[in-house]
Amino acid sequence: MKLLSSITKYLSIRRSILFMIAGLVVFLLYLYFFIGIPKILLVINNVNSIEYVFYYSLALVAVLASVFFWSTAWNSILRNLSIKITYRRAYLYYWVGYFSDLVLPCASVCGELTRFYLLQRETKKEYGVLAASAITNRIVAYTIVTTGLYGGAIIIFMKPSILPIISNIFVVFVVGITIYMASLFYLAFDKNAARNFSIVFTKILKTLRLRKYSPELDIEREKSLTSYYMGFKKFRENPKLLIRPLILHAISYLLGLSAYILIFYALGIPSTPEFYVIVYFIATAVQDAAASFSVGSLEIILTSIFVVYGLNSGYSAIAALLVRSIGFWFPLFVGFVAVQYLGTRNLISQSPLLKKPLTKEIATP
Question: Three-state SS for 92?
Fold first, then answer.
């Protein structure tokens, strides 16, 4: 438990806020020394305020709608597994999990654990079936992402003038998402995958003595694994059940992409489809991987990419700020509101693994 507590302290909101502040300071210094405040002020003075408010407001609505369709797709999968929660609860649970992912650098794991805890607390369902619903939802969602990324890569590779650094980045993304999808399918279709994972995890717990081990843990694990397999069996026998979540996720990701497009329309600088694809996938991939650590560094990366594409450095800096405002800061604010509304501040400030309801099933996948 001491080791887990030290990890929790490392992945703390307070520490993440310090990294955010440091990142913002670095970006401000970058703007001052490499872009120049006069260039930024010139851009602000030239922006059509009416168009800006209109398109930026639409971008914020697109972000809210994108999350709604994502949570609705997840809720559809839950209902097919006889796990019933309201659409409002699913929406709020997603935002709380999203907030965890944004402030804690744990690559979506913290968000899933947070949603697991909230969902189990309400429904009292076993973590095995909840894990099945989460992995199924990831498979459906990343089917859309993979299709979009492969399509975007084809568009980019067909451009003879594309910079090698951009094409190399997309090669890394394509390889990474292919491995990720293969891992998800392995967990979903190989019966021994989750069992092996849970056995290894149990051995780690026993070796590190993170909790008192008892034979009952093996019984609980087998019970959860049974519900885990049964969850996937339902979708394997009737894949049509995944059509609705697939459509909902497609709408969600199109809305997410449209939010980025609207940002450039707000500044009066519409661009090519390939440009939006590059911005969308680079911004989301780096943010998902680095969370709060991406503050400052991702803004500088985006500004540099925009300059490479021929945008004025002043416009590039403002565009990077706005892209991050709808992709990071606005979701962070909405997630914070959801945390306050549900009264889950203690849950976010501690790892869900330390919560009593979760430790009972800690060895399950």
Answer: helix
